[in-house]
Every structure is written in C-alpha cells, then in structure tokens.
TrEMBL record:
Protein name stated in the entry: Dehydrogenase
Transmembrane segments: none
Organism annotation: Streptomyces cyaneochromogenes
Keyword terms, alphabetized: Metal-binding, Zinc
Source taxonomy: Bacteria, Bacillati, Actinomycetota, Actinomycetes, Kitasatosporales
InterPro entries assigned to the protein according to its UniProt record, in alphabetical order: ADH-like_N, GroES-like_sf, NAD(P)-bd_dom_sf
Record keyword Zinc present: yes
Length: 336
C-alpha cells in the first residue's frame, strides 16, 4: 500500500509501506474514503512543527471497514466509520474516565499522523490498522455525508466540545472566537445553533470572516481586548498574543478554551486572569467520547459543517494539493 509522507517543508510524497495485517481478534483494517487536513497539519507542512520528517500524515477521516477480527462486534466490513485521531483501548482506567488521549495501554499520546507515542501511520494512507476497533471506531450514520464529516475524527468533534458543554451550563452566553482555520468556523456554527446570544469571530482572512458571517457571527479583522466582553472565549491560532487577547476579553469567571497548537513559547497575562477569575484549558482533546454527540448535532440540521469544506479533491491529488493553502480540503477515494 501507499502512505502519504511528509518529507520536507511544503513537500509530501507517496511512499510504499507493507499492507497492515490484523494482529489480534480485536482489530480492524480500514480504507479511508474521505480524509481531510487538520489545522495542525497546515502548521506542520509550513515547517512550524516540532517533529523531524519523514513521517506519515493524516489524522482525520471517514473510512470503510475492510476486515475485522473475530472479537469485533460493533462494526463489520463495508461499514463507514469515523476513525478518532488518538489510539486508545477503551478499557484502561484513563479510557473509562473518558481520557482517551491518555490511554495507558499505549505510549503517551499515541496517535495517527505523527510519530508520537509510537508509529501508527497516517490516515492519508490506502489502508490503516485500528488496534481496538470496538473502542475506537464510530459508525457514521447513513444520513450524513462522509465529505462533510471527514473532520469528525478531530476538528469537528473538538469544536463541539469547545462550546457545547459550556453553553449548556451558560445558556445565551456571549462567545468570542479568535481563530485562523476550520476549528473557529465550526465553533461559530455550533455556538449559534446552541443558543449563544452573541458570537464574534476574529480572523485576518476576509474569506474566513465571510463564512463566519454566514453562520450568524459578527466579525473583525483584529481586536483589542474587550474588558468583560465575553463569557466564553475560544482561541485556535497557536499564537500566544491571540490567546492573551481571548483571556483578557473575558467576563468574571469566564472560560477560555485554547485549541491552538502553541509550538512557540510566550507569556500570558496571569495577573489579569487572576483578577478576573479566568478558567483556562489548553488541551489536546479526548475526542472519542464526543464524536457521537457531535455527529448527532450534525444530523439535527441546525448546523452545516459542509460549508467549511473549501475544496474536494481526488485521492490521487494528495501529493500536489495538500501542501497548497486551503481552508479545509477533503480528499475522496471512490469505491474504497
């Protein structure tokens, strides 16, 4: 089989690898059919990551099940499934507590798309081994479009987690979104659908701002901190100064969620945060537990994740199209 490999800044190529085989009766082999780049993949391709190439890329996809072990009960060959970005067993103490990104059955942060916690390959591959199929795979409902939901492995479900639980606790909250990519736009759509009284989206990209306005958000190219302006702030830029903007714009006891990948150090306004009483979470998401709820919201018709998909490419275009600058490209393989 082939796996798409990051080899240098702005450069990827197909490389041959052995076809994956089942290693236990709990495993599955899947073939990605609609795969997309995460916001962090763009940073990696631009040379801003902390891992040296080469390594297989990709950790967001809908796939078709090709083969299953005898003990697998929740999926069968032919099913379309969401493949979570992190590898998890589903039965260790952390997994049972919902901390699937910290599964103790594998090295810390075991994941697809980067050689962290071992080498599990990437989801821009012809075939992928899933070590705990029942724990990991989520069947895609038949009324959902695989292209629209290619990001359910990470960005879509993460975006649900960034705002949905908070809006349940704070109905009508004011939401600030400081972003540069798909996560922020998904958050705008979800926040408005779930009853936010105000959503402000801050992004220098005019095309992104136009999309956000389509989701009912007010927009700004840039912003000075808005004292006590928002109850919930989401930062998804990877820039500490933008995280500072988000934190300094919160109302007393406000919540700041950072989904940015902060590869570079920086200083936060800790005294301001202390005086305001800010709750800050910076976290790689335990996404597996959120996927069913995020899919259910997509089925409701209240949101439209398909609108964030900027381009649909053929699978064979991956080496040429992935390094280009696109908001949310989806690569589709027919008949897989």
């Amino acid at each position: 089989m082939r796996e798409l490999t990051y080899v240098a800044r702005h450069t990827v190529e197909w490389r041959e690898a052995p076809d994956p085989k089942l290693r236990s009766d709990q495993e599955a082999i899947v073939a990605p059919v609609a795969t997309t780049s995460c916001d962090v993949d763009s940073a990696i391709l631009a040379g801003h990551g902390f891992l040296d190439p080469p390594f297989a890329l990709g950790h967001e996809c809908v796939a078709r099940v090709v083969e299953t072990g005898d003990a697998v009960t929740t999926v069968a060959p032919g099913d379309l499934v969401v493949v979570p970005w992190s590898v998890n067993c589903g039965s260790c103490e952390h997994c049972r507590a919902g901390l699937t990104a910290h599964c103790t059955a594998v090295p810390h942060m075991a994941m697809y798309g980067a050689p962290i916690g071992g080498n599990w390959g990437g989801l821009f591959s012809d075939l992928v081994r899933v070590p705990w199929a029942d724990a990991m795979l989520v069947t895609l409902p038949g009324d959902l479009d695989p292209v629209a939901m290619a990001s359910a492995s990470d960005n879509w479900s993460l975006s649900w987690r960034l705002v949905a639980p908070h809006l349940k606790q704070r109905p009508g909250a004011r939401v600030l979104v400081v972003a540069r990519g798909s996560i922020g736009l998904y958050v705008c759509d979800i926040a408005r659908a779930l009853g936010a009284s105000e959503v402000l989206y801050v992004d220098p990209d005019p095309a992104h701002r136009e999309l956000a306005r389509g989701f009912g958000a007010a927009t700004a190219e840039a912003l000075e901190p808005v004292r006590h302006g928002f109850d919930i702030a989401v930062e998804a830029t990877g820039r500490v100064e933008q995280l500072t903007l988000a934190a300094k714009s919160l109302a007393p006891e406000g919540i700041c969620e950072s989904a940015g990948n902060h590869f570079r150090p920086g200083e936060l306004p800790l005294l301001d945060m202390y005086l305001t009483g800010v709750t800050l979470r910076i976290a790689r998401d335990n996404v597996r537990g959120h996927i069913p709820d995020a899919l259910e919201l997509a089925r409701s018709g209240k949101v439209d994740p398909r609108r964030v998909v900027s381009h649909v490419f053929d699978w064979e275009q991956l080496p040429d199209a992935l390094p280009e600058k696109h908001l949310k490209p989806v690569f589709v393989r027919e008949g897989a």
